[in-house]
Amino acid sequence: MNNSEKEVLAQYLPGKVVNTVYNWIIRYKIHFKITRSRQTKLGDYRPPAGKFPYHRITVNHDLNPYAFFITFIHELAHLLTYKQYGSRVKAHGKEWKNHYRRLLEPFLEKNIFPEELHNTVYQHLQNIRASSQTDVNLARTLMQFNKNPDETVIEALSPGSFFLFNNRKFQIIKKLRKRYRCLEPETQRYFLFQPLTPVHPLFQPEKISDKKETNQVQSNRKN
Q1: Whose CA is closest to 180, among 151, 200, 209, 159?
Q2: What one-character-per-residue DSSP string does the chain give?
Q3: How many C-beta atoms lie closer than 10 Å to residue 152's C-beta?
Q4: CATH code, domain carrying 181
Q5: Number of domains within the chain
Q6: 56 bridge partner residues
Q7: What's the pLDDT band for 205 if we cut at 50, 70, 90?
Q8: Given the DSSP bridges, would you call strands 217-219 and 189-193 parallel, antiparallel or unpaired?
Q9: 31 near 44, Cβ under 8 Å?
Q10: Quick one: 15 exposed, middle or buried, by C-beta within 10 A (0-12, 13-18, 19+)?
């Protein structure tokens, strides 16, 4: 990376952490890519393999600066876990949690986060989940810093509502135990969305009937 790439990082991260993230990328020789919004994840890590002899980390471009930073740390913890243990341990086991905590905790002392988020991150580190999206308290607090005022979350919409996600139209069919079952009218395929997935609401027509369970179901946004 060079200074121009460092300036790119500054567009996505809180200002106080840009140098740290830049130095991590250089130190661990990370091939870092800022990607389009993805339905199934906020970011990912892939170890060196085959024609890719370097560590690879991606993070979605549409995250607010604090969510972007926490997602990067999540993926960097995967990298450090792989360097130490290879693939012999669980993806989000105690080894990953230890690295994640060690990376993120010092930033609580550096006052990187606004007060309301600082307290939530502290609580988050007491009981680390596999994804920031599955820590409901953290996900809700992070959403306060989203830039798009037209966004809402799926749990705020009623069954039958239409919404846009990643420039695709969906309709909420029903709430399941932990997620929302939604239909993409164009493909007639079903998808499962996390309750706190940010979406663009469209309108709320008459509720449509549920389709048979044999249609394909895909999970939404997991780290």
Answers
A1: 159
A2: --HHHHHHHHTTS-GGGHHHHHHHHHHTTEEEEEE---SS-SEEEE--BTTB-SEEEEEETTS-HHHHHHHHHHHHHHHHHHHHHTTSS-TTSHHHHHHHHHHHTHHHHTT-S-HHHHHHHHHHHHS--S-TTTSHHHHHHHHTT-S-TT-EEGGGSPTT-EEEETTEEEEEEEE-SSSEEEEETTTTEEEEE-TT-EEEE----PPPPPPPTTS-EEE----
A3: 17
A4: 2.30.30
A5: 2
A6: 31, 46
A7: low
A8: parallel
A9: no
A10: exposed
- This prediction has a pTM of 0.78
200, β-bridge pairs = 164
CA dihedral over 101, 106, 112, 116, signed as positive or negative = positive
Regarding whether 89 and 42 lie in a shared domain, the answer is yes
Dihedral sign (CA 88, 125, 176, 211): negative
Q: What is the pLDDT of residues 40-63, one digit of tens each?
A: 789 999 999 988 999 999 999 989
Owner of token pair 């027509």: 205
Q: How far apart are CA 213 and CA 166, in angstroms?
A: 24
Domain of residue 214, residue span: 152-219
